[in-house]
Amino acid sequence: MVKIRRIVSHSACCDAFSLVKKVFNLFVASDYSSEGVETFFRLVTADYIESLNSRNGFVYGAFSDEHLVGIIAVRDRNYISLFFIDSDFQGIGIGGKLFEIARKEIAGNGEIAINVHSSPFAVPVYEALGFEKTDIELCEAGVRYTPMQLKLV
């Protein structure tokens, strides 16, 4: 059974970063230039994940037998910053559960939309959750992304 809970401790944020790194390298890095991979890991660290709790955001983790298998992280009240599920746990609804908890919290804070800059790999995932593209694919510092939004009202 998978349990969802907030991630706040430094050690849990380090575990979250390890998961992000593993999944990013498996599914996302191949779509980025070496500059993009370097940029991603320069910006995304365990300290960054921990900081989201004090940046008008939050981090939730999915745990299977106390092992972290998925995370969703939000910053600036309504922007999905990180959303990663361990490869062994993809396709069984964990991402949907994490997203629904995040969606409810964002809506409960009075936001009218959720925004994300999706990697090429994750565009179909976000589309399945109801997001729509708001622009064409862009690239900054080697990081490829598609701006997307889900209207809540």
> Could you state the CATH homologous superfamily?
Gcn5-related N-acetyltransferase (GNAT)
Counted beta strands: 8
What structural class should be given to the helix and strand makeup? alpha+beta
End-to-end C-alpha gap: 32 Å
CATH structural fold name? Aminopeptidase
Given as residue ranges, the uncertain stretches (5+ residues, pLDDT < 50) are none
Share in β-strands: 25-35%
CATH architecture classification: 3-Layer(aba) Sandwich
Oligomerization = single chain
Number of self-contained structural domains: 1
Main beta-sheet annotation? 8 strands, mixed
Classified by CATH, the class is Alpha Beta
Cα-atom radius of gyration:
14 Å
Number of helices: 5
| Coarse shape | globular
Helicity, as a percent range:
25-40%
Order of helices and strands: EHHHEEEHEHEEE
- Mean pLDDT over the full residue set: 97
